[in-house]
Amino acid sequence: MKKPPRPSISVAAALSWLIAMAAAWLAVTSQPWALTFLIFGVGTLYLWTPPSGELPKSLLLFLCLLLLLAGVAFLPAAWFDAAFRQPFLDHGMVLPKTLSPQPWLSLEDYLLLLTSLLWAWCCFETKLTLEQREFLVAGFLIGLGLVALNTILRGTALEPVLPSFLRDGGQFENRNQTGDLLVMGGIFSFARGLSGLSRRQWPALFWMVLTGVFMVAMIRNGSRAAVGLFGLGLLLLVVVLRMTRRKKRDARLMVAAVLTVVGMVVLSVASSSLLDRFCILVAGNREGRLPIYQDVVSMVSQGPWCGVGLGNFEGVFNVQRVQSLQLTARCLHPDSDWLWLAAELGVIGVVLVMVLVALTFRLYLWKTPFPRLTSAGITVAILFLIHTFFDVGGHRIGTAWSCLYLVGLGAFRQSATNTIRFSPLILRLVGVLLLAMAALRFQSMSVNPWMPTRASVAQMENSSLPHASAEEQRGLLEKSLGWAPLDWTLYYQRAVVRMQSPKPDESSDDDFDRALFLEQSSLDLPLAVGETCREADPVEALAAWKEVLKRAGDRREEFYQNFYAHPGLDAKARLQLAALAEDDPNLRIIAVINQQPSEFDWMLENFLTANPSLDGVDPALARKLFDHWADMGDQMALLQEWPLHPEWQSTGWRGYAKALAKAGRYKEAVALGLQQLPAPQMPDFSAHQNSDEALRQYRADPQDAFAGIKLYFAQAATGANDAALGTLREIVKLPRRPAYIQYLLVRSLAAVNQDEEAWQTMEPLLEKP
Q1: Hey, which of 137, 233, 624, 674 has its CA 20 to 30 A from 618?
Q2: What are the helix (H) ranges across 49-129?
Q3: How far apart are CA 346 and CA 395, in angstroms?
């Protein structure tokens, strides 16, 4: 049989393939250079070979409505109920007059949205034959196959051998986005394999093997969503194929899908790391998504009808968190594309996008001349949409553009559709606009951008400041705050610059407070503020440390103790730190323990007056309190108060014993210690021991502790108590003696009323937990 010739591929089709492959391979999320490169590619595509100038009127109407809704954020805030802006204004932040508190960032996202819509136009209005589409799909699947191989090799001995460009291909920071690419490749590869098997074509084996590679890569990647969606997608693909095939009773499709799903389950169970991640999911809400969803719903319900504007979710949401505030990580997104869309464009934005998705399915995927490609495209589109409800792949260019490209290769619009035609000149002008946008984005990676972007802000934060004078740094930071007034990092850096300048500015405190207000989850920020202000501004340092205690949760005691570890703390500073304890009994105990001797006694008296029974105090801290009381406090007061508080005995007996010893009451101290210390387990030497033989063995090797112990028990059994005590004194000096020897010596000394020596021997035992 003669091999069919390779179909010719136009420049536009090749360029589109390169753009989609670059988006996937570069794992494009928010990297400025990668986004600029893709915008340049789409602009070149429109300028050189623009897509079909036709677009359905209904689709164009809703696209325009979506763009108009996104543009509402640039209108004056006074026209809307913009209560979400008030907390920022109350903290002295200077916001622009627009509804969007960060219009430059909103403009950047608006232009990215426009570029994505133009890219979707290229993908769905392509005019290619079936052979050309299948050729492009095959090439794209091979590219995704390399991504799968990269994923499999990660963490193995072969990973360092690969060049960095190959090693990082398709590897997103979030494994779920990499999983999206693998699911797309696996579904299309499986569809091609099924199609070839039904025709008994040998290349089908290659596509089925490639499907297995994608499966293994999903397991190695560890994305639970990818594994679950791929299994669902295989069954969904079979259903869609059976609906589009003439022979609807072909059971081979279902058998192949079920076998593949079973293999996927077996591989998932065999992967311990992936199985652990599924166990975490089943264990309950241990990842914090549900509280985030609750807070986003609250934000949407209380915000303007048009949302807070593109690019503003992170800055606004993180000061409105209630349910999710206990999470220690800053929330960059709501873990749902649809909630993200609702927060920034309102519920109307969600409705518009849903209508656009439904129209796209109806106009381009309902009935096509190539049902096999369309079935795979529909399956991938449905899976991607399902994933967007609990992840943000739709906001990631690398996954969203790849999905649009693959689905577009299976799309076809009937010519009878009511359309609007745009002239090639207009589309080329759009291309020029995109190229100009790419140039502006490239120029924005500087300190003097013509169109500020996030790259401009990052440039200000990272590279420009260390090489500028204090005045220049301050001027640059104030300029960048005009672009991103909700960026806490800029306020923190400006506060540091103001504090370290030759003429310190008192307004640095306000900037520190703004940074702490904008970033309410991080522990590192208030710690950094406290350390920066410790010498120059103690009042602000105390405010920052108070914020640390507020955010520390179960680690409050650890951080509070660390505050006292700073060198050079005088009595005044220690008392100021003590005020941070407020009504927390554990923190108050730590404050008392860390006071200087002149302050310890009266602070201890105040604490015991308010809480004599030590209610709510951690036992370990109570033990430290009594030990400290005995070491540097009023020991006579401890001896007098002890009989009145039997509830102190379980945690304070060590400190009381030390106080007894310091008062010369060694017998009572030793008796208390022997009563409270757990008796160690000792060997049984109840059988008669020959003392002479035991003495000979011990003299032969004086370093043998076991021989010495045998000698001790033999001497004690014959009533030679002085000799037995002398033997114990020798054994206790050995470096490799049993742990119970010291306890045994204490008991023996106490038995012969050598109480002071018994106490000195016992004291090290009291320090053990």
Answers
A1: 674
A2: 57-71, 86-90, 103-124
A3: 16
Q: For residues 716 and 723, what is the distance between their CA atoms, to the nearest angstrom?
A: 8
**pLDDT for residue 507:** 78
**Distance from the Cα of residue 589 to its chain's centroid:** 34
User: Is the distance from CB of 495 to CB of 516 less than 8 angstroms?
Assistant: no
Residue 624: closest CA among 752, 494, 767, 726: 767
pLDDT digits (tens, 9 = 90+) for 134-185: 999 999 999 999 999 999 988 888 888 878 777 888 889 889 999 999 999 9
E strand map for 236-292: none
d(CA 469, CA 471): 5
Residue 201: exposure state from Cβ atoms within 10 A (0-12, 13-18, ≥19): middle
Contact yes or no for 533/541 (Cβ under 8 A): yes
Tokens standing for residue 90: 């109350």
Token pair recorded at residue 519: 């970033």
How large is the angle between the packed helices 488-500 and 524-533, nearest 10 degrees? 10
pLDDT tens per residue, range 82-130: 999 999 999 999 999 999 999 999 999 999 999 999 999 999 998 899 9
CB 521 within 8 A of CB 330: yes
* Whole-number percent of the chain with pLDDT over 90: 46
pTM exceeds cut of 0.90: no
Q: Say if residues 549 and 563 touch (Cβ distance below 8 Å).
A: no
As a whole number of angstroms, the distance between CA 371 and CA 248 comes to 14
The rounded distance, in Å, linking the Cα atoms of 88 and 94 is 8
Query: Coil, strand or helix: which one is 761?
Result: helix
Neighbouring CB atoms inside 10 A of 249's CB total: 6
3-state helix, strand, coil in the chain (%, to 5): 70, 0, 30
Contact 365, 411 (CB under 8 A): yes
Residue 399 CA to residue 562 CA, distance in Å, equals: 45
Task: Tell me how far apart the terminal alpha carbons of the chain are, to the nearest angstrom.
Answer: 84
Copy the structure tokens of residue 398.
């690398």
Give the integer Cα–Cα distance in Å for 544 and 130.
65
If one compares 535 and 430, the residue with the highest pLDDT of the two is: 430
Tokens 């291309």 sit at which residue?
A: 431
Strand-pairing partners, residue 98, are 76
Question: How, if at all, do strands 419-421 and 54-56 pair?
Answer: antiparallel
| Alpha carbons 165 and 606: distance in angstroms, whole number | 66
The DSSP output letter for 307 is -
